[in-house]
Design brief:
The chain has about 250 residues and is mainly β. It has one domain. The chain is built from two helices and 20 strands. The strands form three sheets. Strands 1, 3, 6, 7, 11, 12, 13, 17 and 18 form a nine-stranded mixed beta sheet that branches. A hairpin with a 3-residue loop joins strand 17 and strand 18. It is globular.
Length: about 250
C-alpha cells in the first residue's frame, strides 16, 4: 500500500532553500524489542525544491547486514536488494554489505563468513522482521523501506548487532521531516534534529496521505492537526523514532 506526504512552500521559501543548498531529510519510525540498540537513519533526501514536494513510499521491506561503523554522520553501506546468494562480509577489510528482500514474520540469519539466509523461522508473536546474528562478528543491521520516488530501498533503522544476538524490528507508520544545511545522503546516521522538524502520524489516515507546509522563517505547519507534532532543534531522534513493541502490535 502506497503512503505519501505532500509538503507545500511559498515562493520565498523555495528560493531560499535552493539558494542556500538545504537538504530535506526524511526519517521513518520503527518498533523494536531492542530500542536501546537503535540508531536513526536518514531514509530519503530532497535537494531541489519547487512549490510542492511529494514523498511516496511502500512498506515493502528488505533487511541488511553491513560492516559499516555506526557513528553520527556516517553513511551505512549496503547495496540494493538482490537474489539470495551467499556472500562474504567478515573477511573483507574494506566496508561491505548485503541486502535482501524480506517480509514481516521472516528471518534474516547471519552465519559465519558472511553467509546470509532468509527463511520463515520467526516464531515471535509480533509481526516483525527477525535479524539473527549467529556469527562471531559484530554487524550493523536493520530494515529498508521502498521509496516510490526513485524505486530504491533505503535504510529506516540501524542496530548494532553483536555475535549471537537477535534483533526484532518492524516499521511504524510515522515520518519525521527536517531540513539540514549539510549535504546529507541516504542511509546517514543522524542522532539529533539539525533544525525544527515535524513528526507526521499516518496511522489513522484514510488515504495513507498527509499534507503539511513549511516556511523558511516560521517553520512547519500541519494546520493544527493532532497527527502533526512539531519538534525543536536538537531533538533526540533516537528516542523519537523508535517505540517498544508490545502485545497489541
Amino acid at each position: 500500500m502506497k503512503n505519501s506526504v505532500i509538503i507545500n512552500f511559498s515562493q520565498q521559501t523555495v528560493e531560499a532553500l535552493n539558494m542556500e543548498s538545504f537538504t530535506l531529510c526524511c526519517f521513518l519510525a520503527c518498533k523494536s524489542k531492542n530500542p536501546s540498540l537503535f540508531r536513526p537513519l536518514c531514509w530519503n533526501v530532497t535537494k531541489k525544491f519547487m512549490k510542492s514536494v511529494l514523498i511516496e513510499w511502500e512498506y515493502n521491506l528488505s533487511s541488511y547486514a553491513s560492516t559499516s561503523i555506526i557513528m553520527p554522520d556516517n553513511v551505512i553501506y549496503f547495496p540494493q536488494p538482490e537474489p539470495l546468494l551467499s556472500g562474504s562480509l567478515s573477511r573483507l577489510k574494506s566496508i561491505a554489505g548485503s541486502n535482501y528482500k524480506i517480509k514481516l514474520k521472516e528471518r534474516m540469519l547471519i552465519k559465519e563468513y558472511g553467509e546470509i539466509l532468509i527463511d520463515t523461522e520467526n516464531t515471535n508473536t509480533f509481526d516483525t522482521v527477525l535479524i539473527q546474528n549467529d556469527s562471531n562478528s559484530e554487524y550493523a543491521t536493520g530494515i529498508c523501506v521502498y521509496s516510490n520516488n526513485d524505486r530504491k530501498y533505503y535504510g529506516s533503522s540501524v542496530f548494532k548487532t553483536f555475535g549471537g544476538q537477535a534483533i526484532d524490528v518492524a516499521p511504524a507508520n510515522k515520518i519525521f521531516l527536517m531540513f539540514s544545511n549539510n549535504d546529507i545522503q541516504n542511509n546517514t546516521v543522524i542522532l539529533n534534529s539539525e533544525n525544527r522538524g515535524i513528526l507526521i502520524d499516518l496511522t489513522d489516515s484514510k488515504d495513507n496521505s498527509r499534507t503539511v507546509s513549511y516556511d523558511i522563517n516560521h517553520g512547519w505547519d500541519a494546520n493544527k492537526q493532532v497527527w502533526g507534532q512539531k519538534y525543536s532543534h536538537g531533538t533526540d531522534l533516537k528516542k523519537l523514532l523508535v517505540s517498544t513493541l508490545n502485545q497489541n502490535d
